[in-house]
Design goal:
254 residues, mainly alpha, Endonuclease Iii, domain 2, Endonuclease III, domain 1, 2 domains, 0% strand
Length: 254
């Protein structure tokens, strides 16, 4: 998982990050993140090429999904979201008013369901109290750094969750770092043997890329697809990987 030597620095790292985006875009095409549930339906859908504007309901669904996806796969989150939608509970007001035992039962497929139900209801209640104007107005009026700082003050919202909410829900320049990004970046030689902190990874990508929300959106989604389908923790499919020609792991077997 670790890189095979010293990390790429400065312009070389920036060039590599831009090149990787081009390779992944060519290989996979638009991903359509973040999936949301259309009115009257119970299942979320991906919309390749769509980048807003979003409704209050869609922004809340993205925030709820960002909380529920902590420490689990999206497949499990989707089951929980479908249960909420089928029960007529996929709204900020309904979740804020929902008894915790019922809410925990609905989000059970996402794992750690009691804790996540508490986080989800706490987020809904505080946001309704402090931002009665609605998520769309709140997210739209705040700057990227300001929004991220406030989201991080919410119980159960860490850096990755806050960045998902800010980028996908708010359309803000806030690059999302997850386990896929760290694993792929390390194998590409973007980090040394000791790795990087969350903020260091985030800063590296944001310094290397143009300030383009659509690119941030697609890049993170593309890295997730690569991590799921090719760059796995064990037995990765290196030979068929779109990044095989530039990956240090493939070249040196680390």
């Amino acid at each position: 998982m670790t890189s095979s030597g010293p990390a790429l620095r400065g312009g070389k790292a920036a060039s590599a990050i831009k090149h990787v985006y081009s390779l992944l875009s060519e290989a996979f095409g638009p991903q359509g993140w973040w999936p949301v549930t259309p009115a009257g339906k119970n299942s979320s859908v991906y919309r390749p090429g769509f980048h807003g504007p979003l409704s209050d309901a869609a922004i809340f669904e993205i925030c709820a999904g960002a909380i529920l996806t902590q420490n689990t796969s999206w497949k499990n989150v989707q089951k929980a979201m479908e249960a909420l939608a089928a029960a007529g509970m996929l709204s900020q007001g309904n979740i804020a008013a929902c008894p915790l035992p019922r809410l925990a039962g609905l989000v059970r497929p996402s794992g750690y369901y009691r804790r996540k139900a508490d986080k989800l209801r706490a987020f809904s209640r505080r946001a309704l109290k402090e931002h009665p104007e609605g998520l769309k107005s709140w997210f739209g009026a705040a700057g990227a750094d300001e929004l991220r700082r406030e989201l991080l003050s919410y119980s159960g919202v860490g850096p990755e969750t806050a960045d998902c909410m800010a980028l996908y829900g708010g359309g803000k320049l806030s690059f999302v770092i997850d386990a896929y990004t760290r694993r792929i970046g390390s194998r590409l030689g973007l980090a040394g043997p000791d790795g990087l902190s969350y903020d260091s990874w985030k800063g590296l990508f944001e310094r290397s890329l143009p300030p383009d929300v659509k690119m941030y959106n697609e890049y993170h989604a593309l890295l997730v697809k690569l991590g799921k389908d090719f760059c796995r923790p064990r037995a990765p499919f290196c030979r068929a990987c779109p990044l095989a020609a530039v990956c240090k792991r493939e070249k040196h077997g680390n």
